[in-house]
Amino acid sequence: MILVIVILLLVVGTVLFHFLSPWWFTPIASNWSAIDDTISITMWVTGVVFIAVNLFVAYAIYKFRYNKNRKAAYEPENKKLEIWLTVGTSLGIAAMLAPGLIVWANFVQVPDEAAEIEVLAQQWRWSYRFPGQDGKLGNVSTHLVSESNPFGINPQDPAGQDDILVAGNEVHLPEGKPVKVLLRSLDVLHNFAVPQFRVKMDLVPGMVSYFWFTPTRAGTYEILCQELCGLAHHAMRGQVVVDTPQEYQNWLNSHPTFSQTQIVVKGDPHTGQSLYAVCAACHGMEGEGNALTNSPKLSGLSGWYLEHQLQLYKQKIRGAHKEDIYGRQMAPMAAVLADDTAMRNVLAYIDTLPDKPAVDTITGNVNRGRNYYVNCASCHGDRGEGNFFMQAPRLAGQQDWYLKRQLQNFKKGIRGGHPDDFNGRQMAMMAAILKSEQAIDDLVAYLNTL
Ligand SMILES: [Cu+2]
């Protein structure tokens, strides 16, 4: 009897939970309401069957409960009941599967007027490519991927020259216009998903997968990687901003074409040398770093990393936190470099400076540090040499007190806490695994051995 009550409560509770719980679809922002309909149909079919089966079980337990004056009848076959159940089950399953097949067919049947965009995934970031004036995306190959050509566009293909490249994690789309989304991965399996659009598709290395949709509501939506693609999988986030067509055009025009990215002017180290005089006061004549001015070593760091940091300082993304005492000393110095040319020149000069290893000041348990570093190596490299594709700087040879301070700042959100600091935020999540000051010392002591 208790069992009957438990089953009845379970049924009533489940139904109430379904209708009263606040967890339901996010408001839809695309044309794919048909996907919600198929899920609703599945809910109804499985819901009705769930209630019917449980009520029948409860009824049977009650009706046929033990009674010493009753004996069970043996009845292994019942044609009528079997036919009835087979037909009923088949209809139910067909009702669940058929709408899904229809919707899936539409999902990959792209209308002619859809504009193409390409989404490129790599551990652990998204970037985007739009066809330029010619409306055609150029040929690509992973063999051509390099620091100056992160999309691997074939420079011989005229269709690729005007492709517009978006290096950040944020992409804009015009409201009300259908888009075909082409998906490409540079390394492992990823999955592109935007819950409000109801879209979700794997990115498979070596092939181009696709789907289409029409954004129907202006707003900002989060892109998630819904494939467990490695250590920092949870940090692989992006954003889609749905704009009016005019705002979208303006945004798109603010990005360079492939051919523009190929004609980067080289900096001039001679002009850079005089600009560096300001920096030398803190960072040292040879960019070797100086503990007295709290300034890190700059020599030996890659140009792309230094440039990115200077941009962050200039845009008040790094060195703006009120507790960032040392970053706030640096930020006005970045502003001394008036434009991109000045920045390139000073970086060209820093590139000529000798790369001398820093003096060790921190001791710790190197073996423990090595174990912590296993997590860091996937971005910073086994020898702490840095990796452009992860945007992760070289750590080997850097002043150890500076590394320690950065790790503490990442942990406290003093660095990487700004909403526009994508790389810093990713790094901050990683710094969180170093639970204590001792752990940081051990890790930095290990870095000193690289
Ligand atoms: Cu991923």
Tags for this entry?
five-stranded mixed β-sheet; binds copper (II) ion; Immunoglobulin-like; 450 residues; single chain; 4 domains; Cytochrome Bc1 Complex, Chain D, domain 2; alpha+beta; 13% strand; 44% helix
Give a short synopsis of this structure.
This protein is an alpha+beta fold and 450 residues long. Helices cover 44% and strands 13% of the residues.
Structure description:
By secondary structure, this protein is an alpha+beta fold. It is built from 14 helices and 10 strands. The protein has helices spanning 2-20, 33-63, 79-107, 158-161, 245-253, 258-262, 269-283, 303-314, 325-336, 340-352, 366-380, 400-412, 422-431, 437-448; strands at 115-122, 125-130, 164-166, 170-174, 179-185, 190-194, 199-203, 209-213, 219-225, 237-243. The strands form 2 sheets. It has a 5-stranded mixed sheet with strand order 3-2-1-5-8, with no helix packed on it. The chain has a 5-stranded mixed sheet with strand order 4-10-9-6-7. α2 (33-63) packs antiparallel against α3 and α8 packs across α9. The mean pLDDT is 89. Copper (II) ion binds next to loops.
